[in-house]
Design goal:
By secondary structure, the chain is of the alpha+beta class. It is 27% helix and 37% strand. It has a single domain, classed as RRM (RNA recognition motif) domain (Alpha-Beta Plaits), CATH 3.30.70.
């Protein structure tokens, strides 16, 4: 699997912004087949940083109503990457 196929998108919420600013932990939505080693290699190669730890979890799909129909959102995989002290990833440069 290519490194650009492993990471799908960053997860940007108030909680993940706090984790990034205070604890140097960045959250990404990753491919369902990705492993901790693949995520570590992808982040280090793409963002040129040193990864200390990778935590992975599956986010279960939720039941949602679409008018009269009941559907389900898809399940996805999330990775929380802890960087070495003093390193950071900037998602919005020059904004």
């Amino acid at each position: 699997m290519h490194v650009y196929e492993v990471l799908r998108r960053p997860v940007l919420t108030e909680k993940t912004n706090y984790l990034a600013d205070e604890l140097h932990r960045y959250t990404f939505e990753v491919d369902g087949r990705a492993t901790k080693q693949l995520v570590q290699q992808a982040v280090e190669e793409i963002f040129k940083v040193h990864v200390q730890r990778v935590n992975m979890m599956r986010v279960h799909g939720k039941t949602r109503r679409f008018g009269r129909l009941v559907g389900k959102t898809p399940e996805w995989k999330k990775a929380i990457v802890t960087l070495a002290a003093g390193e950071s990833i900037s998602f919005f440069e020059g904004v």
